[in-house]
Amino acid sequence: MNTPLLNVDRLTKHFPLSAGILNREIPVVRAVEDVSFSVSAGETLCIVGESGCGKSTVARLLMRLAEPTSGRVLIEGTDIAGLRKGSLRTWRRRMQMVFQDPYSSLNPRLTAEKIITEPVENFERLSRRQRKALAADLLRKVGMSPQMMDRLPSELSGGQRQRLGIARALALQPSLLIADEAVSALDVSVQAQILNLLLDLQKQMGIALIFISHDLGVVEHIGHRVAVMYLGRIVELAHCEALFAKPVHPYTEALIAAAPIPDPTRVRLEAPVEGEVPSPINPPKGCAFHPRCPLAVERCRIDVPPLVAMADGRVVACHVRAPATEALATTRTPEGTAAQTHG
User: Fold this and answer.
1) Considering the entire predicted model, what is its pTM?
2) CA-based nearest residue to 166, from 130, 127, 207
3) What are 311-331's pLDDT values in tens digits?
4) How far apart are CA 41 and CA 209, in angstroms?
């Protein structure tokens, strides 16, 4: 087994809300709570869940675009969550992000050449010839003509803009690429082109990829492992084939059952879920999913379920489907990440 490139250990992010003078305790939005996982070079970990579950906040925490409340983010053993700006700068080259909206994530006043080369020029000086050569090479890599390097983003289509965003992310030769809903704003045909491009680039460069999406069809196509999040926590993490063949957590079942099935002969899972997602300001006690879960028992209303390793290699947080056999301080996943338990 390869040593993980990225280890995330009990990552937590709370956003404090403003409070009145008489309020003794400031309420917080519990956006991410006790999240742990790992990613190896050349691997794709997909993070899925409903809107507001904390997927994008995890991405921002990994990139240090937001400061974690607690927890660690280790790249090759170095905890970047605790680094100051000067030390963090050297690690910026190792991790890059492709944003969701290709229309707003690119500077409309810069040409494609400048957009691609600007990140590199933050670290080293390039001659005009070097800038041209770098831009031309990366445009070819993402399937665009070097003749487009003088165009502005407004002169490109949505798919071309997203390819340009990927070229910009690759300019620093990162080890880790985070794609946050990178194809959700694109047409289906363009989505397929971008997904295949990411897979090809991953094979060529051995990049570790974290792919955040709410589209389970896309996830099934691109992922090696899948982490399912609900209200800031990971409730199930499994290999992609195993997760879609036999989901264990009731919430994972509900997500897969809700996804459209293009094959009319394929039997749809029946996993009805009622009600709304609880507020992250005042989450339910015990398992956050229990108010909507058809399998909930009394323990689900009291205790937060620990992440428990199962025989097929997945980890699941569910008192009913994956009951912990004994109280442990931590549960070791097959990927080597310590998953904190609460039992």
Assistant:
1) 0.87
2) 207
3) 889 999 999 998 865 433 334
4) 8
